[in-house]
Amino acid sequence: MRNIIVAQSGGPTTAINASLSGVLSEGLKNCNKVFGALHGISGVLSENFIEFNNYSETISEFLGRLKISPACFLGSCRVKLPNHNEDLEIYKKLFKTFEKNEIDAFFYIGGNDSMDTISKLAAYGDSIGSPIRFVGVPKTVDNDLICTDHTPGFGSAAKFIATSMLEMAHDTAIYEVPHVTIVEIMGRNAGWLTAAAALARNEYNTLPQLIYLPEVPFDKKAFINDVKAELSKTNNVVIAVSEGIKDKDGNYIQNDTATQDKFGHTQLSGAGKALELLVIEELGLKCRSVELNIVQRCAAHISSKTDLDESENLGRMAVKFALEGESGIMPVLKRLSNNPYKCEIEFSKLSEIANKERLVPRKWITEKGNDVTDEMVQYLKPLIMGEIIINYRDGLPVYENIAHLY
Amino acid sequence: MRNIIVAQSGGPTTAINASLSGVLSEGLKNCNKVFGALHGISGVLSENFIEFNNYSETISEFLGRLKISPACFLGSCRVKLPNHNEDLEIYKKLFKTFEKNEIDAFFYIGGNDSMDTISKLAAYGDSIGSPIRFVGVPKTVDNDLICTDHTPGFGSAAKFIATSMLEMAHDTAIYEVPHVTIVEIMGRNAGWLTAAAALARNEYNTLPQLIYLPEVPFDKKAFINDVKAELSKTNNVVIAVSEGIKDKDGNYIQNDTATQDKFGHTQLSGAGKALELLVIEELGLKCRSVELNIVQRCAAHISSKTDLDESENLGRMAVKFALEGESGIMPVLKRLSNNPYKCEIEFSKLSEIANKERLVPRKWITEKGNDVTDEMVQYLKPLIMGEIIINYRDGLPVYENIAHLY
What we know:
Rossmann fold, elongated
């Protein structure tokens, strides 16, 4: 291929730069020029490019450091591309930019919304007979893309969640007075991340005793009964709860008023806080809520090696598929076995993936809806395996310089 | 010495078990029996003991794992010992227990309240001519004990805070729209932990741009002006704020109603949330608040090696001082130099330490009260240095079994 462009879009994870590292290493081997567009599709429109061939002297060091760095080295955006029958001009402009820069392939690393963008570009390209290849590269902490066993970034966030949950199990075990700790975990519609709290259980730890995912309608009365039942067994009850739990009518369980972002996604806060207040009101005992917040998606110092290696390979394979002439596709992970864990990389059509959401199957949640099943634990376990090597300077992890984002 | 007892008290840190490990290793070398009382002074009263001589076969493995495990292996309590002229019976009972178990020294690992307890025991012992030695071992994430350069647990919490702050600096840098992130950090009266956020700054990162500690009265108008000034320079403003910031009249800046625990400490929540709502109201832009909560004090997987080594040595030295006949004392750290960092261990009298609080000196906070000085950074820097070696199993850190706390 002549030149290629890669960009990143959507919310950050600790693995999105590993995929970028994969695209770059394979791209630099096989193409003339490798451009990175800053801030997703916006950077393509404004031709705000970094040229990675300039990094050649120190490229292997750079790629290694990039692989373990959190968030998006190229910045991100939340621009949603209109359909080409709604706004043809933007498509014409993008393709003119591609042509001018002799671009043979465009790689977009992102989640649901980003796959919609790249899918639309591929479809438009097809309609005008363009030879440019459009390939999506998956990422999302939420693990909610379809056609793939799991998504880059999820395993690392799951590892941080399980580790913090284990550490909080130690922290909360020290007092003899009855108390409840509620840990709110990311997940608007899909409970995958919250389910990862179950991985903290081991030969001495049964915490969290209760896990509530958005896939099952949340009932406050049943919840209080669940908490009472646990308190009859122990003084220390820890509960993992998704930010997106809703009652049977679909109303979010929350303390604050929900606001909507421009994709129509509801910005949530306060499921944990709402339950904290409920427990205090109903049971009159000490209760604390902890929101893992953005820390859970950027804790790169404890990334899963499995996750970063897979993410890097997905980036490499995206380039390989493009070299083989594929377009309108996304490399996906197909699990071959759990023990030993083995995943291979195939690809799926973007048109099948975009704008769809993969929720936790009901059968992986217990009948009462307050825990996950062993099948879920077996699914999650391999994804947090392995530790990465981080260099520390002055006591802090050495990540890649992001001064160019300012 | 014949037998000794050790116990832990107060809020957990990731270094309190390192001090326990130090007491145990030195105690097992020099004493007949080493008892651990479960749940602090309550466990002494009820003779709820673990006998560590029983661990002898696997003691070195156990001590190594104990050193890196978060929270309190022996559990904790929040019992405040009354003065002996208020309740003589409790003292008589405690000394009878000591006598019955042939105890020559009692070691209490804890913070302000725990030093009050051990100080009272030492004073009572003196008054009845008891030969039993009473030695405190410092710990507190808050770094607010006097007579010591810093306290065990603080450096590890500071390392997690600085690391998370750096990771959040990456996470928040990716979008082009103006936004503000407020990170609420522990510290009721002392701003040491919040100051540690400044360590995240490096050759490419200036975040957090603003830092507010409880030592300086918080002014909402000045705060909004500070935020505006930063927003005129960049789209990404990150602010570190202590949970305990107060206005000039001493009222906490918070969203929720404050409640008091039985020591009269105010339980806070919501400084970050209150400022988030203030920014949205006053500036009308995207703002998020993140509360690091208990995660910051139990993130043992990223403990500071300097902190754990010092904590272990303080535990060892506590036993050595007792062997030398000292009582009513606490081993303390005295910093000899910053570069190279060097600290030695001396001891101070408990009567001088108990119930006092070491705040951040005003001169280590900038004149405007919205940042810390370079002197503060130089003080903090050595305390987060060094990484510990953690064993992982199934992708998670291997900590010491705490089943005996249930």
